[in-house]
Amino acid sequence: MAAGIYLHVPFCRQKCGYCDFYSLPKLSWIPAYLETVKQEILSYRNQGIVADTLYFGGGTPSLLPPEEIEALIGLCRDVFSLEGEITLEANPESSSLSFLRKIKAAGVNRISFGAQSVIPKELAALGRIHTAKAIDDAVFAAKEAGFSNISLDVMLAIPYQTEKSLQQTLSHFISLQPTHLSAYLLKIEEGTPFFQNHIERLCPDDDYAASLYLQTVAALNQAGLLQYEISNFAKPGMESRHNLKYWIGEEYIGIGPAAHSAYKGKRFFHPSSLAQYIRSQGKNLLLEGDFGGEWEQLMLSLRLTKGVDPDTFSFGQSLKEKADSYLRAGWMAKRDGKLAFTPQGFLLSNSILAQLLPDEE
Ligand code: SF4
Predict the structure, then answer these.
(1) Whose CA is nearest to atom 3 of ligand 1?
(2) Residue 12 Cα: closest atom of ligand 1
(3) What is the location of CATH 3.20.20.70 in the chain?
(4) What is the C-alpha separation between 319 and 74, in angstroms, rounded?
(5) 95-99 long-range contacts, Cβ below 8 Å, gap at least 24?
(6) What percent of the chain clears pLDDT 70, i.e. is strictly above it?
(7) Cα(293)–Cα(195) distance, integer angstroms
(8) I need a surface site. Which of 30, 190, 225, 272 has the fewest CB within 10 A?
(9) Are 312 and 291 in contact (CB under 8 A)?
(10) Which of the pair, 292 or 150, is modelled with greater confidence?
């Protein structure tokens, strides 16, 4: 089975107040980072690893010079015989037509824009430096550059958001005809400026957030962007092949600081430190545990709307019995013999999953 390669680009022009991804506003470190990333990719040489996806995530991968993106793709082609989906996350304001043309020529065939909202007050509250016009410009430029696989991110339950403002954002995004859309509920993590400044007081409460999520699912499904995962929607056949690997339990290798891997039955990761990553020449991998257990696979697969076949699990009988009350409550559904969460169930999936756990002997 081919693996996925995730390449973490830990740079942003400035930090958004809600963000707990590992990224730093230290663009002068890019050359040393690139040098180390190349060494790390080369460390996988001659291992017979074949990859069919490459994902540049971040951070803001669109801050990398296009020539370097091309060099990294070339290296991955050599080392991993890479062929397939190559995604790059980009911020609208750093995606000029000339940049998009260059990375398209370099082999990137899927672009994912961190668009989030079209409402100025919401974007300002998030600390995002782009405007609705910058999103339009970036999507049109991507199409002009030849991209036919374009994803947009939208954020839910953000400061000042209402059903009406969300509808405005969703309608705007739908009108841009993306092939894929990711919709994430804002989670205010400890240690972020949003947490310290009690920004939750400006955000919708949990009930309202749940209704914004259900509104999003309905609007996107109606627009032909079909929900396939708790937070992801796509035109048929345009699901993210890379991200699907995480949920169906395929192997992936993470390159760069804070990147996680699941490979040869183990999970391992690089700590969130660019300085340490560079100092160790990319060799500072830490073991996280085993990968591929049944229970873990159940949790991951149930993120997908296609769900799981209970009979493929050793605890399938108990799973079916335990799921019964959730089926009756409308939080789970049976489709083609598979058990899956409904959109209402996704909102409660963490607590339901804990109940689906097999009883200890
Ligand atoms: S642009 Fe994205 S990765 Fe960078 S700080 Fe903002 S949310 Fe985080």
Answers:
(1) 59
(2) 4
(3) 3-246
(4) 46
(5) 95/62, 95/138, 95/141, 95/142, 96/141, 97/141, 97/144, 97/145, 99/62, 99/66
(6) 99
(7) 34
(8) 190
(9) no
(10) 150
